[in-house]
Amino acid sequence: MHHAITLMGFHPTVRIVKTRRTAALGEMTICVDEVEHAGAFVEIERTVHGQESGIAVQEELDCFARSLGVPLERTNDTYDSLVRTAPAPATSLSPAGASERV
């Protein structure tokens, strides 16, 4: 797949390393992502059925998220933009003077 994408003229600009855990609770899908250099993120989703209001469903999901009792901050940023703006990982000097990631 990587080769096909590069043949179309695209090239990598940032590497996203994440671990995703998923669960279902009633009609909700809950994803917990741990993104290297960006932190932990929770996505809570539910399909809007028939004549349901999308805004009402968003309010329901927001209420559920707040009921978890953990500090929350809503973001619209993408993982690649978060990783790009994250501080660089710390480096240390080995005895030979070459730097290495800590």
Q: How would you concisely characterize the structure shown here?
A:
By secondary structure, the chain is of the alpha+beta class. It contains three helices and five strands. Helices cover 25% and strands 28% of the residues.
Strands across the major sheet, in which order? 1-2-3
The end-to-end distance, rounded to whole angstroms, is: 31 Å
The mean pLDDT is 87
Question: Could you tell me the strand content as a percent range?
Answer: 25-35%
Number of H/I helices = 3
Write the topology of this structure.
Elements lengths: L1 H6 L10 E8 L2 E8 L3 E7 L8 H13 L12 H7 L5 E3 L5 E3 L1
Antiparallel strand pairs: 1-2, 2-3, 4-5
Can you walk through the features of this model?
By secondary structure, the chain is of the alpha+beta class. It is 25% helix and 28% strand. The chain has three helices and five strands, in the order αβββααββ. It has helices at 2-7, 54-66, 79-85; strands at residues 18-25, 28-35, 39-45, 91-93, 99-101. A three-stranded antiparallel β-sheet has the order 1-2-3, with no helix packed on it. Strands 4-5 form a two-stranded antiparallel sheet. A hairpin with a 5-residue loop joins β4 (91-93) and β5. The longest helix has 13 residues, at 54-66. The chain is extended and about 45 Å long. The two termini are 31 Å apart. The mean pLDDT is 87.
